[in-house]
Amino acid sequence: MNKNSFPRGDIRVLLLEGVSQTAVKSFRAAGYTQIEFHEKSLPEAQLAERVAEAHIVGIRSRSNLTAEMFQNSRRLMAVGCFCIGTNQVALNAAQARGIPVFNAPYSNTRSVAELVLAEAILLMRRIPEKNMECHRGGWSKSAAGSYEVRGKTLGIVGYGHIGTQIGVLAESLGMRVIFHDVETKLALGNASPAANLSDLLERSDIVSMHVPETPSTKNMIGAEEFSRMKKGAVFINASRGTVVDIPALAAALKSKHIAGAAVDVFPVEPKGNDDKFVSELVGMDNVILTPHVGGSTLEAQENIGIEVAAKLLRYSDNGSTLSAVNFPEVSLPEHTGSRRLLHIHENRPGVLTQINNVFSETGVNIDAQYLQTAGQVGYVVIDVDATEDQGRVLRDRLAAIAGTLRTRLLN
Ligand SMILES: NC(=O)C1=CN([C@@H]2O[C@H](COP(=O)(O)OP(=O)(O)OC[C@H]3O[C@@H](n4cnc5c(N)ncnc54)[C@H](O)[C@@H]3O)[C@@H](O)[C@H]2O)C=CC1
Ligand SMILES: O=C(O)CCC(=O)C(=O)O
After folding, report:
1. Is 269 a catalytic residue?
2. Which residue from 308, 306, 334, 309 is spatially nearest to 320, judged by alpha carbons?
3. Model pTM?
4. Any idea where the ACT domain is (predicted)?
5. In 3-state terms, the chain is what percent helix, strand and coil (to 5)?
6. Using one digit for the tens of pLDDT, what is the confidence trace for 22-46?
7. Which end of the chain has fewer CB within 10 Å, C or N?
8. pLDDT tens string 97-139
9. Catalytic residue at 12?
10. Counting Cβ atoms within 10 Å, is residue 7 exposed (0-12), middle (13-18) or buried (19+)?
11. What is the average pLDDT across 186-214?
């Protein structure tokens, strides 16, 4: 039976933003009892305080984990983003402190794809305006400006996990699919790459954004890009709010150059359900506004809870970092019958020699050794044939090596 030298009951797990109860159940089932659960994200000062007390932190998209928080979090061992995006976390700062960050790269992709397709159909039929008119007691039964999606061109910007799924589903509705990506991508079905972003914008009846938040995607769609789109085309953004210049979108909608839009993500989003939502797009009849719910289905959230909790538990109990987004990836077998030492260090010459010296000097036999480096950190896992006391001595000797960021002993 593998037992962490740091008892599971002492490991503090902080779960925020109402992550699914499937995560809570996973931690409990694995013997973790100190679980602090919050339905919302916390205000920055309180978040910093709670993170500083935790060993494992689980968030969604609304909690910003800053470099300063990582610097001040002595205990913090791992972070789980119960979502796809990890832009809310200072990943390099976490890496520099030897803290792996995990996410769920697939579990909510179908949910986003379904929402986007539904919105494409609603926008092409001008349903948002008709809906608002009926709510106001109006009645304008007319086909003017309403189109089927069949035969129309869908332009997907960012042809990754979500973009590709949307492409496949859209083709099943008879749409033509073109895409633009910075990487060369295998086109699924009959989809084809556009020559570049401008080409995609000029040819599409529907443009849908599926890129991550990065410096290169910031405001990648602004006044110039909207002007390149066909008159009467519609626009969807369920990626990140920073990708689109909102005043430029509002202007393109007001001028009717863009016939409608669906926006799920915003440059500034309320921290919680009680906070006020403010946007220049509020009150525009031809805009579907949703509160960042692209991935918010029960199916997706339950699966994400299981997936991310499993990654955090595997790291905590076994040392595996498979699919960490900022950390050397090591997939480890169980270590039944041996003690496991984890050593996270600055990725610089000389550290490995010192690690190996510790074992030759103490005469403890190494059963297996795993090493991986990424960016600023190196991660060495050593399985040893040692008593519990020897394990502790080894851990302390490893911790004393210059350049060490963290050590752990898994019994
Ligand atoms: N609204 C919501 O609730 C949700 C939003 N998202 C957002 O959707 C984004 C995309 O998700 P996935 O498809 O799973 O990610 P992914 O990583 O599989 O795909 C993103 C694609 O964008 C491409 N890309 C990156 N920079 C680009 C640029 N400047 N121009 C063109 N292409 C670029 C990448 O090469 C990649 O193929 C996530 O990063 C997240 O921010 C994800 C899930 C839920
Ligand atoms: O569920 C959330 O809070 C965020 C969903 C999202 O945007 C993501 O998975 O990147």
Report:
1. yes
2. 334
3. 0.93
4. 340-411
5. 35, 20, 45
6. 999 999 999 999 999 999 999 999 9
7. N
8. 999 999 999 999 999 999 999 999 999 999 999 999 999 999 9
9. no
10. exposed
11. 98
Report d(CA 187, CA 177) in Å as an integer: 10
Mean pLDDT score, 358-372: 92
CATH class for the region spanning 6-103+298-321: alpha beta
- Answer for the pair 128, 288: CB distance below 8 angstroms, yes or no: yes
Going by C-beta distance under 8 Å and a sequence separation of 6 or more, which residues neighbour residue 374? 95, 326, 327, 328, 329, 347
Q: CA 216 → CA 48, 93, 219, distances in Å?
A: 29, 20, 8
What's the pLDDT at 7? 86
- How many A from CA of 337 to the centre of ligand 2? 40
The answer to whether 239 and 125 have CB atoms below 8 angstroms apart is no
Cα–ligand 2 centroid distance for 63 (angstroms)? 11
The stretch 375-389 carries a mean pLDDT of 94
Domain with CATH 3.30.70.260 in the chain: 328-410
Separation between Cα atoms, residue 132 and residue 121, nearest integer Å: 17
Pick the CATH number of 108-289 from 1.10.10.10, 3.40.50.720, 3.30.1360.60, 3.90.226.10: 3.40.50.720
pLDDT computed for residue 337 by the predictor: 82
> Ligand 2, residues 15, 19, 84, 264: which to mutate, most atoms within 8 A of Cβ?
84
ipTM (interface pTM):
0.99
What percentage of the chain carries pLDDT values higher than 70?
99
What mean pLDDT value characterizes the chain? 96
CATH 3.30.70.260 applies to domain 328-410: yes
Instruction: Cite the beta strand spans of 162-202 per DSSP E.
Output: 176-180, 192-193
| Strand intervals (E) in 114-162 | 153-157
377, HSE (Cβ side, Cα atoms, 13 Å): 28
Residues of the chain with CATH 3.40.50.720: 6-103+298-321, 108-289
The full DSSP string for 212-235 is: ---GGGTT-BSHHHHHHSPTTEEE
Report the DSSP pairing between strands 377-385 and 339-346: antiparallel
Q: How far apart are CA 19 and CA 353, in angstroms?
A: 42
Catalytic residue among 53, 114, 133, 269: 269
292 is catalytic: yes
